[in-house]
Predict the structure.
Amino acid sequence: MTNAAPMQKKLNELSITEAARALRAHECTVRELFDICLTKAKELNPTLNVYLEFFEGPDQDAAIEAAQKRIDTEGENAPLLCGIPLAIKDNILIEGKIVSASSKMLENYRATYDATVIKKLKAQNALFIGRTNMDEFAMGSSTEHSAYGATLNPIDPSRVPGGSSGGSAAAVAAHMAIASLGSDTGGSIRQPAAHTGLVGFKPTYGSVSRSGLIAMGSSLDQIGPLTKTVADAKILQEALQGTDPLDSTTIPTPSPYSVRETPKSFRIGVPFHLLEAGVDADLLATFNAQLDALKAAGHEILDISLPTSPYALAVYYVIMPAEVSANLARLDGIRYGHAARGESLLSDYVDSRTEGFGSETKRRILLGTFVLSSGYIDAYYRKADAARHLLTQEYDAAFEKADVIAFPTSPSPAFKFGEKSDDPVSMYLEDVFTVTANLTGMPAISVPMGTVERDGVALPVGIQFTAPKGNEHLLFTISANVTKETL
Amino acid sequence: MATLEDVKKLAALARITVSDEELAKFVEEFDAIIQYVSQLDTLDVGKRGDQPKPLLPYTNIMREDGTPHEKGLYTEKLAEQFPSRDGNYLSVKQIISHD
């Protein structure tokens, strides 16, 4: 490395944009960038428990070499993600690699193909450092439900990093990767991003292919980035999005959604009626201060009403477990995964599932089985489905008056280990502001808006914006306004 | 309120065993969750028969029939994952009795 004088940050602390520039300017090599991230990751992993596995060996060496070659030959024309080391959540398939969804059930399961997002990243010569810890099958808001132990929050190791993409969040926050991929079913990208001071982005449902993502709630799941900057989230989203014949819910071209022009002055809707109770006072004050700053920057703040929103979490905790119980039925110990053998075929199924699944996974499977059972399907599942549509209509109406809608990402900052793990409902309340975007399919982003102090530690908190479907560009623009970035 | 028997029955349907020690805790947690989601009872979603629109504005995405990939391309990779294998066959317990 020569002439590092203008660069104060270490290589592993760079954003994608900064690292891509440094690689092109030959201020560092792909090998140096990768090694410094991997070294940092290995140094911190024994305490933080972020990565379940590092990807090293001849394949990785070849990938590093290929990325360097591409930068050397293509220079400025090389893709932005070429040579960038990324952390990948342990529910996204990389061919030949173990992908366990942090479950004993898939402890030794090797992916037989690449997820579409992985294919796209490989086409850009991006690098994968390893697979990151998560709540088992993406069910949880703290990463405490992993079969491989909890991940610690690098900002305050006595606290959770959020979840379920807690490993992917901690990896970027602790500079053990330049950026990472997570998945978001009810807030699993946005909430950990908020708890670790990152940008977390959930695309419009169907914007990114789910092919090769281990399914949790198929009508809710989306893959998205956790990054240090809004610009990085935009770069990854642009790399990942697109129609995929392997996922028929990907948005077709031309898009059925109407794309809005980016306004100079945003009309920001805020449902103040949802913030009257349940939000920490200092977090709410930080949120209000951020709204004032946006107002001072020339944007308009509108008080909007979303009367069905208080029911959103209840709707989610019917729809999601219903889909979980159906999706996880395939894990029966017969063709792959944990295979216990009993006296009969039935006991093979039952024993494999009983041994393979953790308690939160079992709880949600039972809940899903309950809401879909014949005596209760009208009272729970069909009612929730109708409410989901009502919720969608309310947001559609609100977006006639507003360009984006703002909330805090979560009602409190990162909590302490064990604080909520014995009380499922209090854990579920972590998602109270994030689930709506999954239920309606809207894109949503969490951006750092400041800190609140707990036990003498400044903990980051996030502001969340949602936009009409197919209008992620509005989210990037307004978020860059918060982080003071130029996109 | 869910009973021990209710939860046991659900577990059997879901092909899971809940041990007796776990059962009491499961019933308690289950009740708390059901109580929380039961707030939906107080929500008026309009008249029944007002069929909601489909979730997505695009449905029935079709593709041309064809061969997705060359035959046997994934056979070995998939068979490697089998817990018990006989050549390219997956071995399972006998399910039809000869008696």
Observations:
- The longest strand of chain B covers residues 85-86.
- The interface with chain A takes residues 7, 10-11, 13-18, 22, 26, 29-30, 32-34, 36-41, 43, 45-46, 52-53, 55-58, 61, 63, 74, 77-78, 80-84, 90, 92-93, 95 of chain B (CB under 8 Å).
- Strands of chain B lie at 85-86, 89-90.
